[in-house]
């Protein structure tokens, strides 16, 4: 149990949670979704935290939760907004391979139909498209690997991501499937 984690980063709607659990199953790893840990710790839904406490407080809670994670051999689906926390990203980078799920803005917009209830960390007056342009350079700068996701099914992506990761994972555990 000394292997690195695989951490998905990317915009909300890029597929981090969906692909995370399936990749973990495919590779025989554990799975963790930081959004679920936040909700359990707070006893509230993400949207309620944002509505009640505001975006800045939500980001602090998220950063604190991520910095407390101590796991190995685990696929971790982060929330899209974790990228704003340099200490949280630094902590993840220490023992994980960061995989950026890259998806074009039109595809993100199409997937996010429930903006008001999904819990997106939007500042006052900020639109989803502004968030996209603000965050892309941050995801790019912190990714160990980038996976272009447009036009690919979940199954195709699991296959492609495992292939990309294989050399990195095999170098630390030759028995991994
Ligand atoms: N490769 C894909 N093709 C089509 N839809 C997808 C794909 N990956 C994820 N989705 C869908 O996109 C939506 C957002 O996925 P989700 O895993 O919640 O993203 P994230 O965790 O990055 O916010 C879900 O409805 C999911 O079913
Ligand atoms: O990008 C964001 O602002 C957020 C994305 C959400 O997770 P997903 O990226 O899994 O949708 C969740 O962490 C939170 O409500 C804020
Ligand atoms: Mg998610």
UniProtKB/TrEMBL annotation:
- Main location per the UniProt record: cytoplasm
| Name of this chain's protein | Shikimate kinase
Tell me its cofactors: Mg(2+)
Where, in this chain's numbering, is substrate bound? 35, 80, 135
Record localization: Cytoplasm
Residues that bind Mg(2+), according to the entry?
Answer: 17
Q: Cite the record's note on assembly.
A: Monomer.
Biological process GO terms, please?
A: amino acid biosynthetic process; aromatic amino acid family biosynthetic process; chorismate biosynthetic process
> Cofactor note from UniProt?
Binds 1 Mg(2+) ion per subunit.
Q: Name one GO molecular function term.
A: shikimate kinase activity
- Keyword Transferase annotated: yes
UniProt keyword terms in alphabetical order: Amino-acid biosynthesis, Aromatic amino acid biosynthesis, ATP-binding, Cytoplasm, Kinase, Magnesium, Metal-binding, Nucleotide-binding, Transferase
In which organism is this protein found? Hydrogenispora ethanolica
Provide the binding site for ATP: 13-18, 118
Q: Which reaction does it catalyse?
A: shikimate + ATP = 3-phosphoshikimate + ADP + H(+)
Q: Which family does it belong to?
A: Belongs to the shikimate kinase family.
Q: InterPro entries this protein is in?
A: P-loop_NTPase, Shikimate/glucono_kinase, Shikimate_kinase/TSH1
Q: Does the keyword Thylakoid apply?
A: no
Q: In UniProt terms, what function does this protein have?
A: Catalyzes the specific phosphorylation of the 3-hydroxyl group of shikimic acid using ATP as a cosubstrate.
